[in-house]
Amino acid sequence: MTTRQQQSAVLALQWTGHSLRVLDQRQLPDTINYDEYTDAQGVAQAIASMRVRGAPAIGIAAAYGVVLSVNQHYSKSNSSWQQQVQTDITTLANSRPTAVNLFWALTQMKSVLDGQSDDPLPTILACAKKIHADDIAANYKMGELGADVLANATGILTHCNTGALATGGYGTALGVIRTVYARNPIKIYAGETRPWLQGQRLTVWELAQDEIPVTLIADSAAAWLMKSGAIDWVVVGADRIALNGDVANKIGTYSLAVLAKQHDVKVMVVAPTSTIDGAIENGDQIEIEQRQQSELLPDCYTDNTYVSAWNPVFDVTPAGLISAIVTERGVAFNPGVNGVVGLIEA
Ligand code: MRU
């Protein structure tokens, strides 16, 4: 089966024409189970509960959530439909704080909605479908651009899941890895990505389906892997990129970048331009999501007043630790010097 055919098997999101089917990623790789949503509140809950996750996929899901809201509330006789849709947009925006793709997609949908006088549904649906299709196209473009940069790579370590499950299809960092491997079958390593294990449960699953060999490592094995000389690049995605090139991504990315510097390993970040937040100068302005202690703490400590857990699920890697940021519009080399402004000004 080809890579593109494989993607249809693992799509995170499917628009049915009247509802959004969301693959429950919490159950992977053991169970493939799609939940069907017919309202925006349900989609917001699917995002907050991690059924769908990954920055671009969250944005696409939210866009379809707005479609469901318009479908539910719009009628010629309902003079309050716009306020009701706005309430749903606010609920969607509150589902998770860090990935800017969510807010980017909602802004796109809102601006299309604001211009509508007649039945807004066809136009708003077209906008969501375009956001979805553009993301897939961007992934394929980034795959090519990133693979060009990695032409002489010998081994790659990736983190979290940045594949078809995290995007409209194909993937950001994992899209680059798929393209690199098709050109030159080099060694791929994936970190487990605690505490949600996106690397162990999702990335390994996606790559195995594509028949791309992958070696799983405990997150804590990364330094020793680098010391062994097995990799020359760390390739990751992003949830939000500041104008100076600082990158918020899955917790542990910053650790990898620090380790990479020590071992002369380069760091590549792969993300569509919808992940660049043009409103923030640097990573200090990025809200880092804190999730419940229960995601880390064993049950036996739930009521123990002496034990607590600190559970930030993203961190910020300073631009100076990154060698290249790959977008569908081009590559920013050494973003610590020039940032990424040039990629969104074009
Ligand atoms: O908490 P998650 O699983 O939504 O975090 C996902 C990541 O951090 C990904 O690396 C990022 O969204 C890039 S996905 C293309």
Automatic annotation (TrEMBL):
Record EC number: 5.3.1.23
Q: Where is this site: Transition state stabilizer?
A: 160
Annotated keywords: Amino-acid biosynthesis, Isomerase, Methionine biosynthesis
> What Pfam families does the annotation carry?
IF-2B
Biological process, per Gene Ontology: L-methionine salvage from methylthioadenosine
* Residues the record marks as active site: 239
Positions binding substrate in this chain are 53-55, 96, 198, 249-250
The catalytic activity, as recorded, is: 5-deoxy-alpha-D-ribose 1-phosphate = 5-deoxy-D-ribulose 1-phosphate; 5-(methylsulfanyl)-alpha-D-ribose 1-phosphate = 5-(methylsulfanyl)-D-ribulose 1-phosphate
Is Amino-acid biosynthesis one of the keywords UniProt gives this record? yes
Q: What GO molecular-function term can you cite, just one? A: S-methyl-5-thioribose-1-phosphate isomerase activity
Describe which pathway this protein belongs to, using the record's wording. Amino-acid biosynthesis; L-methionine biosynthesis via salvage pathway; L-methionine from S-methyl-5-thio-alpha-D-ribose 1-phosphate: step 1/6
Q: Enumerate the InterPro entries for this protein.
A: IF-2B-related (IPR000649), IF-M1Pi (IPR005251), IF_2B-like_C (IPR042529), Initiation_fac_2B_a/b/d (IPR011559), M1Pi_N (IPR027363), NagB/RpiA_transferase-like (IPR037171)
Q: Which NCBIfam families match?
A: eIF-2B_rel (TIGR00524), PRK05720.1 (NF004326), salvage_mtnA (TIGR00512)
Q: Which family does it belong to?
A: Belongs to the EIF-2B alpha/beta/delta subunits family. MtnA subfamily.
This chain's function reads:
Catalyzes the interconversion of methylthioribose-1-phosphate (MTR-1-P) into methylthioribulose-1-phosphate (MTRu-1-P). Also catalyzes the interconversion of 5-deoxyribose 1-phosphate and 5-deoxyribulose 1-phosphate. Part of a bifunctional DHAP-shunt salvage pathway for SAM by-products.
- Protein's name in the database: Methylthioribose-1-phosphate isomerase
Native source species = Methyloglobulus morosus KoM1
